[in-house]
Structures are given as structure tokens and as C-alpha cells.
Amino acid sequence: MYDLRDLVPLGSAAKVSRTVKESDTATNYSPDLNTLLAPPACIDMAIQACVAAIDTLLPDGFVSVSRNIEFEHMVSTLLGVKVTMRAEVVEVQPTYIMVRLTLTDDIGEIGRGMNRRSIVKSEALMSRANLRVQMMTNERNM
After folding, report:
1. DSSP assignment of 15-47, as one string?
2. How far apart are the C-alpha atoms of 131 and 19, rounded to whole Å?
3. Cα dist. 88→34, 80, 106, 141 in Å?
4. What separation in angstroms does the CA of 102 have from each of 13, 26, 45, 112?
5. How far is it, in rounded angstroms, from Cα 95 to Cα 73?
6. What is the pLDDT, as a whole number, of residue 141?
7. Which domains does the chain have, with CATH numbers?
8. Predicted structure pTM score
9. Are 96 and 118 in contact (CB under 8 A)?
């Protein structure tokens, strides 16, 4: 097995930017919030930025997966505003990586958080998921 400390250096980072569009808003949760960036869109950007910062450094057949994510969306952001999520590796342990998340717009920081990620073999991950589906199917057929 690989030692993550040899693969992913501290400070590895990536950014993901987008202009807030209707599908990024809280429309699905409350019609009164239909022009505001929703936290699920922030989390989506966080995961994309983490993958961009880490997965290109991994050996073939390995991927990073989110184990735990904490995110605070501190400032309301309107439809049409450009936002940027930055993911920076701040801790690398043998079994996990911690990534600092920072969301900004043109004025400044609007959100922040941390994402704990594990590195797994993509084939093994899919195999376990498929096995679980088979177990559920067998359970239903009893």
C-alpha cells in the first residue's frame, strides 16, 4: 500500500469557480430563497475542488472519497455572482487527508470548512457497493 505522505504534499491546492445559476440556488428548499446560493451547491464545489487538488497526484486506480465534511456558509450570495471554492491540503496522515475549504466572491470570504478524505482503490469501492446492492436484493427476495 502507498503512504499518502509520499503522494500528496501539504499545500496541494485547486480552485473551482462558477457563476451562481438557478440550479445552485435554494429554490428546491424554499421559494423565498430562490435567488440565493444554497449550501448543497457549496458542498458540490468543495468536492470538485478537493478532487482536483488530490486525485491527479494518486496512482492509477485510486481515488479520494469524502469521509466527513463540515462547511459554514456565512454570507448570502445572489444568483449571477461568481464564486470560487479553494481546497488546500493541510494535513496528510497514513489513512486520511484533511483539506481546508474556502469559498469567496469578489468581495471576500463567504464560506469555509474542512473535508476529511480517504484514498481508496476505485475497483474495490465499486465492488463493495455492488455487493451491498446484491445483499439488499437478496433480502427483498426472502
Report:
1. EEEEE--GGGBGGGT-GGGTTBB-HHHHHHHHH
2. 39
3. 30, 26, 20, 46
4. 11, 20, 10, 5
5. 28
6. 77
7. 4-140 (3.10.129.10)
8. 0.88
9. yes
